[in-house]
Amino acid sequence: MQVDVLTETVIAVRCERVAAYASDPSHAPEWYENIASVEWQTPPPAAIGSRMAFVARFLGRRLAYTYEVTAYEPGSLLVMRTAEGPFPMETTYTWEPSEPAGAHTRMTLRNRGEPSGFAALAAPVVTAAMRRAQRKDLARLKGLLEERPPAW
């Protein structure tokens, strides 16, 4: 069973600022509740081919995985994939102005993958937990950026 969870929010900050902050994996532990750390395996900033090692906790388990950037259009799209472990995953971010003046950003976060083994049996539970986590993470990002927008 494939897992495919799409979440979106509107953030009252200009698109280029939201995208610059959220597309930098170094910031992930600040707004992802379950991500404990990110370590660059290639020199930053993010570009196609960049690799980062993530450590997270999800459903009570420690997860260590490496993402590789497979698509990147600064300001509008970032796609990262991992092929390791029992749950290969693809994460996609998109950003676009949500109104003509461009002062707000519509951001989407999509995680999808094809779990195998025990993870496949637990796919419905994983899907529900991912949906809850993604909603919380985007709410956290929205609050963080709207309360203290990046100075850059």
Features:
seven-stranded antiparallel sheet; alpha+beta; 152 residues; 4 helices; Alpha-D-Glucose-1,6-Bisphosphate, Chain A, domain 4
Structural notes for this entry:
With 152 residues, the chain is an alpha+beta fold. It has one domain (3-147): 2-Layer Sandwich (Alpha-D-Glucose-1,6-Bisphosphate, Chain A, domain 4), CATH 3.30.530.20. The chain contains four helices and seven strands. It has helices spanning 15-22, 28-31, 118-121, 123-147; strands at 3-11, 35-40, 51-58, 61-73, 77-82, 89-97, 105-113. The chain has a seven-stranded antiparallel beta sheet. Strand 3 (51-58) and strand 4 (61-73) form a beta hairpin. The chain is globular, with a radius of gyration of 15 Å. It starts with a strand and ends in a 5-residue tail after the last helix. The mean pLDDT is 90.
What does the secondary structure layout of this molecule look like, with pairings?
Layout: E1 3-11, H1 15-22, H2 28-31, E2 35-40, E3 51-58, E4 61-73, E5 77-82, E6 89-97, E7 105-113, H3 118-121, H4 123-147
